[in-house]
Predict the structure of Glucose-1-phosphate adenylyltransferase.
Amino acid sequence: MRSKECIAMILAGGQGSRLSLLTQRLAKPAVPFGGKYRIIDFSLSNCRNSGIDTIGVLTQYQPLTLNSYIGIGSAWDLDRQNGGVFVLPPYTKENKGEWYKGTADAIYQNMNFIDRYNASYVVVLSGDHIYKMDYSLMLDYHKNKNSEATIAVSQVPWDEAGRFGIMNTDGRRRITEFEEKPKNPKSNLASMGVYIFNWSVLRRYLEDDARDILSNHDFGRNIIPEMLAGRCNLYAYAFNGYWKDVGTVDSYWEANMDLLAETPGLNLYDADWKIYSVDADQPPQYLAPGARVTRSIIADGCMVYGQVDHSILFPGAYVGPGAQIKNSVIMPYVQIGEMAVVNHAVIGRKTVLEPGVMVTGDELGAEVLLVGENLLISRNFRAAKTTAVNEGRESWEYTESQEMAVS
């Protein structure tokens, strides 16, 4: 087997509990985004566009949909004879099966996969962020700095810095201190969850970490601090493009709405850096006479008879006559009845809103109303302290082909 200079490992096993109902049956990287994509499409497309053709995807929580979606990687041109994309769930070893104990342990359990390709460098990625990035430029930076570990950073608003791992650096961008979700951050350079390591160095630290029974087996809490304590060369790589951690319902909604800006920070229409995805194989969208659509993304298979303003509709959504959709994300196969109103909300897939129903979030309080999937909504809902609605009953029959398209 031919050696690979650099391979990628995508951490895609997180539960994403802060996304509430969106991740009850899906791993966070499998959550639909932007009208036709899933969140993991961005990491996989970045790898493909960066020339990295050997990728391990480490799954754990609710993996079935994600595993079947990735398949052999053909949607991203990653079905290769030498290399390609590999789904790597936890497996039984030494007569005992163990879940991944943390991000570092997930890589540790798959060291044989990396060794198989005799890789010099390993790119470790999160599978649940929205961004476009050329990892080959970061690898060049890593080599030029003679770095042993390079961490991509993005400047975040100071009032949000406490949500992230924060890098403190000197004038040469060498990392001098790492703070995990600090109460009083000294910097607003947030880790993007994109790392490049010299494999020979990382391997040693992973083996030491595996022997430490007190460790959380996590890159941010353990590996990076240990490397700093060991005086390794760690550098921050400044990324100035669009990047969003869609870890909450609000941030997920915001990232979708960002796509509708007059000049969006994330350009999905850039032919030089495509975001690839599995084709849903739907008929064209239909806009009925009298329908009105403004500043919205309407996916294939949608039928619109009402009004859609500043919203995103996923494949197979139906908007009835007189219905009004505004500032909302409508998941696959949602049925919105005649004269219904949806505003500042995320509606889960296959949910049915009966005629005249109003489902509205709190625009002034910037609170998004999240409605679960497979529900019949027959009464009005407004955002309250809780943003998740999971009432009603499963109420819609779907053909097998429709189920497969959105599963």
Observations:
- The radius of gyration is 22 Å.
- Residues 4 and 119 are 5 Å apart (CA to CA).
